[in-house]
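#lab-general

N.A. 3:47 PM
ok so I finally got the sequence cleaned up, no stray characters, all 260 residues accounted for. can someone with queue access submit it? mine expired

B.Y. 3:52 PM
send it over

N.A. 3:53 PM
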Amino acid sequence: MTRWRSFAATLAALLCPALAWAHGISQADKQRMLDGGYLQYVELGARHMLTGYDHLLFLLGVVFLLHRFMDVVRLVTVFTLGHCITLVGATLLQITWNYYLVDALIAISVIYKGFDNNGGFQKHLDLTPPPILWAVFGFGLLHGFGLSTRLQQLPLGDDTAGIVGRILSFNLGVELGQIVALAAMVAGLALWRHRPSFARFSRLANMGLVLAGVYLLFVQLHGLQHDLYADDFRFPEAEHRHVHEDMEIENTTDASRNSL
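B.Y. 4:20 PM
back already:
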């Protein structure tokens, strides 16, 4: 474990800029939620989806090889159903987990879809992949749970009706953002599919999905290391205090840094 933590620390300089990709809820957004109404939750949900690179990459993998519009509708519908169930249900029931771990699993879903699109189950594992509808539905549940862990960082209020309204508003925003993202993806893929380069670079593009998923996985694992072993990445409080005493600097210890 010590060796792994040391390895993770050496990657910090490369990974820290990408930690923003974890699309957490900023203090500014929390304050906006307190000051605004349901439309603020709709707007934040849409923005959360449109900046959620893991969600977007998975959706790209889902629609990448689909030629028929009804196939797109069918798979997107089961994905939407899945993430609505866990987004609304887990938030209402206050079921949560370490969001770095959830986002790490979501990164694995990106790896899975790129691997599946390239026929990896058949070529490398000599296996038949799980039915696509059930796989997408299952990953939809996972993605919705990831969204719920973030939504539960927001001030949702104390009244049940208000809480439900805010959850549904956020979910509506997520769906609107998903529609915008999917429209762009499907249109772009439809134009590209009729060009000779699609056949040449389709496999390479899905390998790119796998690599992007691996990168996001390491980002989340790095974040998890910060969360679980915070003192390995900064001065422990006692050491920090000792340095300040040596420098004869008083009353400058920020207690809020003792937790992440």
